[in-house]
Amino acid sequence: MRLCIICGKPLTRKGRLCRSCETDKYMTIRYQEYKVKFQKDNTPLGRLMIDFMTYLDDSYGDQKREIAYRTRYVYEALKNEEVSLKSKWTIQDILNIEKYRQALSVQKRTALHHFVQYLLVRYNLQTDIEEFRILEVIEDIPKDFQDITKKYLEFLRSYRKLKHWTRFQLAYSLKYFFSHIDNNYDIIDVRQVTKDHILNYIHYLLSNNSQRNTYTRFRELSSFFNWTKRFKLTFNNPCKGIEVDYGHKITQCLDEEKQRELVKRWFSDQANLQEAVIGILGLIYGCSSEEIRNIKLGNFKEKELVLPGRPIPIKLPEKVLQLINRYLLWRDEICKGANNDYFLVSKISYKKNCPVSDNTFRNLLKETGLSPRDLRSTRIQDIAFTGNLKLLEGLGLSHEGMKPYIRLAAPVLLMEHNDE
User: Fold this and answer.
1) Phi/psi zone of residue 45: left (φ > 0), alpha (ψ -120 to 50 degrees), beta?
2) How crowded is the C-beta side of 178, counted as CA atoms within 13 Å?
3) Which residue of 45, 65, 145, 189 is surrounded by the most CB atoms within 10 Å?
4) Which residues are within 8 A (CB) of 29 and not within 5 positions of it... i.e. 6 or more apart?
């Protein structure tokens, strides 16, 4: 069987390189050609393109293939005047690019997205575009409530110094509330909102969202009405006296037969190694999805795994170490030696040296039909039933996080107390 001389994969075509490595080689040559071409080109377009390539170099380093693709598509758009070349770019220019790129192919859309990010940095427009996006959300709110929403968000920006992303989320939260009020009640002023309206909204949220999301939305709404009362825009806070629990029901743990089946699956030679390391860390060591996503190679110390927030390192037995080493070998082959600090990688994350996304994480467990919470909750409940709450602290649980499991362990603790 013939193998690719670069990556070692079996070849299904003529030649000495697989299709991926051949494309990498070709686009690396194109990258060098673009560099030379734009360095010699002293026109406004040439200067813009060499600055754009420098920006991509700083952001993506060794990913010459991706840089070449993005440079090509942006250059074609500017040269063909599909995107107008400007001496100084404004917010309106960026919005025009955003509108134009929506109908393009994925690669061209991605290239122009990075061009937009470059322009935001180059012309210091990041703050302006962020504020514009908040205004776009406000414009979707029913007109009777737009002015008061603007005043509230401006207060949060000027006096509370809240960052863009927080205010953006609050704008969405208020948009959902006011849209619900406008669609279901004959209300044109926040002074008409009563406690019954709030209770009906909470019921609506619970029917479509998680308990935690409902709690967050309610707290945001309560803060809004506290502000309206403080500045005498309403007579009272209709959220006062309503309680919404943050906690939710403990996820049902997996039975012993299911656990044995999963462990056998993950330690087998045919296992999906990404799925296996996630499963073992979640089921045996109670690691949350956030912990696993943010594990770095530097967190492994000899035969231990050190996780921030956990007072005790995780001691890894030989069988688990073998699985991790198998995964690391597979990881090196897939990443082709790219520099990445994180243990768990995907095709996107290893290029940017960042943790995998939540969607990628969930998709890796999709075949099992389980969520990361199912695995972690199983381990924590197993510990809770022993009555040894110090072990729960060793998992890095806060006092608030331990409360549901303390209640779960209460019968065990009560029996131990009575025996004494």
Assistant:
1) alpha
2) 25
3) 145
4) none
How does pLDDT run across 389-403, given as a tens digit for each residue?
666 666 666 656 666
Q: What is the mean pLDDT of residues 87-95?
A: 86
Tokens of 392: 């729960």
Strands 300-301 and 304-305: what pairing? antiparallel
Helix axes 91-101, 126-139, angle to 10 degrees: 60
pLDDT of residue 410: 57
Q: What is the pLDDT of residues 99-120, one digit of tens each?
A: 898 888 988 999 999 999 999 8
Per residue in 394-406, is it b (16+ CB within 10 Å) or e — as a string? bbbbeeeebebbe
Contact status, residue 344 vs residue 278, Cβ threshold 8 Å: yes
Q: What is the pLDDT of residues 229-276, one digit of tens each?
A: 999 999 899 999 888 876 655 667 788 888 889 999 999 988 888 899
CB 71 within 8 A of CB 49: yes
Alpha-carbon torsion (9, 14, 20, 23), positive or negative: positive
Q: What spatial distance separates the first Cα and last Cα of the chain, rounded to whole Å?
A: 71
